[in-house]
Design brief:
- There is one protein chain.
- A hairpin with a 2-residue loop joins β1 and β2.
- α5 packs across α8.
- About 40% of the residues lie in helices and about 25% in strands.
- The chain folds into three domains: about 80 residues, Winged helix-like DNA-binding domain superfamily/Winged helix DNA-binding domain (Arc Repressor Mutant, subunit A), CATH 1.10.10; about 100 residues, 3-Layer(aba) Sandwich (D-Maltodextrin-Binding Protein, domain 2), CATH 3.40.190.10; about 100 residues, Periplasmic binding protein-like II (D-Maltodextrin-Binding Protein, domain 2, 3-Layer(aba) Sandwich), CATH 3.40.190.
- The strands form four sheets. Strands 3, 4, 5, 6, 11, 12 and 13 form a seven-stranded mixed β-sheet that branches.
- By secondary structure, the protein is an alpha/beta fold.
- Keywords: DNA-binding, Transcription, Transcription regulation.
- GO terms for molecular function: DNA-binding transcription factor activity; sequence-specific DNA binding.
- One of its GO terms (biological process) is DNA-templated transcription.
């Protein structure tokens, strides 16, 4: 099985469409189609059924997927091990984190890295989804869940808190909710269920069943913007509140704690450029605690 063709096959299997796979791999759709056809010809097997809803793997496709994943794991392991021997303070380092962590912590870390090592190029990906470090979707990730994969190295960065906030204009119009009423008569800002299922069932320990979800977003920064705009009550990290004097904290005695972890694959721990970026991130968080 040709590895270049196998990469295309894996992407199609995971995404479900030829166009989506081409976008993930940053190639044109025609090339992706030719690669898939070449793989099917070499294996003398139909790997996908082409349906209106996308590409559905056949029985042969499922078998090929398992083999292709093993190829991918071996290729990724080799690349990580070679990177682990790299002592150059130059090249690309990929970071995955949320938008809010990026804005409040990672940008400062990148600034420090560039001041000392201008040949390091950081590729920053923000979102709530967890990147797969074993597939090299990122070299470093900041997560709020401690990993249990023995191949991953993790370091505790900080324990932060979230609290309930509303704008002064919202409180002037609607008043403050009463504890124990499950936000009766109030509008709430929440994450989309597809992004964080069940997240909005309660805010800071208060059930939300009597409240009205006015806005659903897929970004922490959008929750902040929606609360600042007076669209409703939201749960925000308390360290961000001082940047928004128009916000008022509701029920200050109530909060929810969360942890942040810096995670990398063990094979990259000795890569100089990855280590330099990781050290800068740790320094920024230590200064914030």
């Amino acid at each position: 099985m040709d590895w270049d063709n196998a990469r295309i096959f894996l992407a199609i299997h995971r995404v479900g469409t030829l166009r989506g796979a081409a976008a993930v791999l940053q190639i044109d759709q025609a090339t992706a189609g030719r690669r898939l056809a070449a793989l099917e010809a070499s294996l003398d097997a139909r790997l996908f059924l082409r349906t209106p809803g996308g590409y559905v793997p056949t029985a042969a496709g499922e078998l090929a997927f398992a083999a292709a994943e093993r190829m991918e794991q071996a290729a990724d392991q080799l690349q990580r091990q070679m990177q682990g021997l790299d002592h150059r303070l130059s090249g690309v380092v990929r970071i995955a984190t949320s938008e809010t962590v990026a804005r409040y912590f990672i940008m400062e870390a990148i600034k420090r890295v560039h001041a000392e090592h201008p040949d390091i190029r950081v590729v920053l990906s923000t979102g709530i989804q967890i990147s797969n470090l074993t597939r090299r979707e990122a070299d470093l990730a900041i997560r709020n869940i401690k990993p249990d994969n023995p191949d991953l190295i993790h370091r505790h960065l900080a324990r932060k808190e979230v609290g309930l906030y509303a704008s002064r204009s919202y409180l002037a119009a609607h008043g403050e909710p009463k504890p124990g009423t499950a936000f009766a008569g109030h509008t709430l800002i929440a994450y989309q269920q597809a992004v964080l299922p069940g997240w909005s069932d309660s805010l800071c320990g208060e059930p939300t069943r009597n409240g009205r979800i006015g806005v659903e977003v897929n970004s922490g920064l959008m929750i902040i913007d929606a609360v600042v705009a007076g669209l409703g009550i939201g749960e925000l990290p308390t360290h961000m509140a001082p940047d928004h004097p128009e916000l008022v904290r509701i029920w200050p005695a109530r909060s929810e704690a969360y942890d942040l972890w810096l995670v990398m694959h063990g094979d990259l721990n000795r890569t100089a450029r990855v280590r330099a970026v990781a050290d800068a991130i740790v320094d920024v968080f230590e200064e914030s605690n």
